[in-house]
Amino acid sequence: MSYKIIYEDNTELADFEAINKGYRKDVIVVIDDKRYKLYITDIIRLHQDFDSEIEETGIYQNEPNTIIVREVGKDEIEKTIDGLIKDGFFDNLGYTK
Questions:
Q1: 97 falls within a domain
Q2: Which residues contact 81 (CB under 8 A, 6 or more apart)?
Q3: What span, in angstroms and rounded, lies between the C-alpha atoms of 94 and 46?
Q4: Assessment of whether the complete model's pTM goes beyond 0.85
Q5: C or N: which end of the chain has fewer Cβ atoms within 10 Å?
């Protein structure tokens, strides 16, 4: 199966900021004619978001199509997406055209 990973903001600055912020929301995976918009986060950022929302609202709702990675760098993102594709993860995920 062939696929393509697109970074909507494909700059060194965006890469640097993503690693430091612990999340990236400009990643799209294209498989055949299906486009999957992903929210990439590391566990530290996920934990911070969870704690903050629970404190503020009493509930936590994660971003759609959330993928948790060790580090929000392109190498780790691409390795994770490759593994998820091999495992059939995207077969059951919502997509946009």
A1: no
A2: 3, 5, 29, 38, 67
A3: 21
A4: yes
A5: C
Q: How many domains does the chain have?
A: 1
Q: Are 82 and 68 in contact (CB under 8 A)?
A: no
Q: Strands 34-42 and 3-7, how do they pair? A: unpaired
Residue 48 resides in a domain: yes
Domain of 30, in residue numbers:
3-92
What digits encode the pLDDT tens for the residues 41-85? 999 999 999 999 999 999 999 999 999 999 999 999 999 999 999
> Strand, helix or coil at 25?
strand
Separation CA 93–CA 86 (nearest Å):
14
